[in-house]
Amino acid sequence: MMLAARLAIFLCLPFFLTAVLSAQSVTVSQPTIWATKPDVAAFEKIETDRLAAGERAIETLLAVKGPRTIENTLVPFDEAVHQNNSAGYFAGLMEQVHPEATFRDHATAMLTKASAAQTAIALNHDVYNALAALDLSKTDATTRYYVTRQLLEFRLAGVDKDDATRARLKKLNDQSTEQQSMFDRNIADGQKVVEADPSELDGLPQDYIDRHKPDANGKIHITTNYPDALPVFTFAKSDSLRRRVTLAFSTRAYPKNQEVLTNLMKTRYEIATLLGYSSWADYNAADKMIAKGHNIADFIQQVNDASRPLAQREFEMLLAEKQKTTPGAKEIWSYEAAYLSELVRRTKYDFDSQSVRPYFPFMQVKQGILDAAAELFHVSFQQEPNVPSWDPSVETWIVIDSGKPIGRFYLDMHPRPGKFSHAEMVAVLDGIRGKQLPEAILVCNFPAPTATDAGLMDYGDVETFFHEFGHLMHHILGGQQQWAGISGISMESDFVEAPSQMLEEWIRSPQVLAKFARHYKTGEPIPADLVARMNRASAFGRGGWVGRQNSFTAISYDIYKTKPADVDLDAVTLDDARRYTLFLPLPDTHLWASFGHLGGYSSAYYTYLWDKVIAEDFFLQFDRRNLLAGDAPMRYRRVVLEPGGSISANDLVKNFLGRPQNITALQYWMAEEFDSSAGSTKSAGQ
Question: Which positions ≥6 away from 544 have C-beta within 8 Å?
Fold first, then answer.
């Protein structure tokens, strides 16, 4: 548990430009992430300077003689947080996105140094004592909360342990950072290629087929990059191809990550036990909304009880679909679920997922999401031209509120070798009111548009884009704080997915889609009837989706809830898939090896379902017929997003809902529009 450190926000996961430009052009004096030549020497100088500035701030704090004050103690402490976070963000980002492997190696080394600097502060008795000596009686509530929470993080880091234990904890934290970096790198670097006959592409979209021409031997090559692999799972008629691509996708970091993950589990277990906890899962929960490890197990069971009946009815519909071609079938393999779900949506709901793709060319989707966010959050966006970066495709944007810049973000949206292969928002800089604008980046892997290819996106791609943009706006709007340590997404980390999952719901709004979803050839707006059928069809499978997420949650918890020596990674993965889903897991996939969240989220993957509960509760407060009507949009910005980490996430929830979250909204969402007994649907809000 790293003092004041940030989580790279995962997923997991865009019309007329003038619609989001401010009326008057705005300039930002703050330099962009690459203000100089983007080479290794420049990068390492930036990192070294930031870490040195952090060290000087701590030296200033420790040199104080006399009474401790906010000015002589908390100000330099927060400056150290600011500098070390900035170094860690930049190093972690370059490790994941830079096109050169040697550069990524340098980034990994710098990330280790930044993490070591954070650990050194977290284990420094004198820094802890200085903060503890502050008289907070006359300070504002935000400052009191900040200091109180930091003191908790110090204790969780082991600052109150003896010298030998603190030295061991420092070594273990450095080790953990290196091991997690290697775990992530192995996934990013582990791309595989599957050979296929052209006939096996039957069922896939025509633009996908056009992008995959046979080689000299008449073979098609399909990589495990998302734009290549995901359409196969959903649309390929060839069972053999779907199975082969699933195996390649799931094993892209196997066997390399077996030793890496095992060692990471051992390191984390030792950290937890040195600090008096029975397991990493229990320790990792101590500063989160969920509070205790066993509460994760209780939550898993609660979600299973809520989702199982609906998942069972959905499964029966999928099995009936499979039996049309495989009479007498009694089981469904996990790799068949997406394809069979697509068939059910076509037969029961008269909806073909490919039918909406022509309305989702990448450039229109990007602009549409900017437009939607501008309207929802009452901001505007302005692109900054000719900004140097690590790849020519990266875009730079300014966020403007009432004519003033309040943040900057970058878009790195398309796959390339060695790049992080999923979708995420990553912080770049913490916002500090009057001193530094918050910055963040979206790292995604959507189809890249070309002169001959519009880069058509799947429904799920668009949903992911909305999700990640929700993270981004949370970081920017919450980044207007006095202190770096409570800026942006710095509250309890099991709240971080709620705003992003809430924004996913915008893709289901006819009001929002009507503004950007236009046919890439004809310009025709997406038909209202198609949107209605899309929404009805998308409601099918939610029970199964929750079950699958619950299985991932259980895997995350079960490998960290006990001694690593007692964990068989394959057995845990297969057992939890069988326990919480109704599908047969494919043998030999070694899912854990490429399950990147086992590094970052570790035992806290429950966050996605925990926050889905909160997100759906939030969304029920909006008018479904007009999402922008009433006071909900601005109240959501002010009450949920703008506070950043200045108050507890439990209070953020209660302040917006008027009560704690409950699972009722998730149950409504799962069953919304779907009546399995009749195969009929009902309108949202009825």
Answer: 311, 314, 315, 318, 337, 341, 581, 582, 583
**pLDDT-based confidence at residue 537 (cuts at 50, 70, 90):** very high
Q: Is 387 exposed, middle or buried (0-12, 13-18, 19+ CB in 10 A)?
A: middle
Q: How many helices (H) and strands (E) does the chain have?
A: 25, 8
Beta strands in 167-310 (DSSP E): 193-196, 220-223
> Using alpha carbons only, how large is the chain's radius of gyration in Å?
25
Q: What is the value of pTM for the model shown?
A: 0.91
Q: Are strands 380-384 and 220-223 parallel, antiparallel or unpaired?
A: unpaired
DSSP string, 389-401: -SSTT-EEEEEEE
| Other Cβ atoms closer than 10 A to 550 | 28
Residues in Cβ contact with 338 at an 8 Å cutoff, skipping those fewer than 6 apart? 233, 234
Residue 213 CB: number of other CB atoms within 10 A? 9
Tens digit of each residue's pLDDT (9 = 90 or more) over 19-45? 333 345 888 889 999 876 678 999 999
Q: Cα(249)–Cα(245) distance, rounded to whole angstroms?
A: 6
Sign of the alpha-carbon dihedral angle for 426, 515, 210, 589: positive
Domains and CATH numbers, the chain: 32-187 (1.20.1050.40), 192-250 (no CATH)
Q: Are 668 and 618 in contact (CB under 8 A)?
A: no
- Asked if 90 and 49 count as a contact pair (C-beta separation under 8 A), the reply is no
List 426's β-bridge partners, or say none: 441
Measured from the Cβ of residue 378, the count of other Cβ atoms closer than 10 Å reads 13
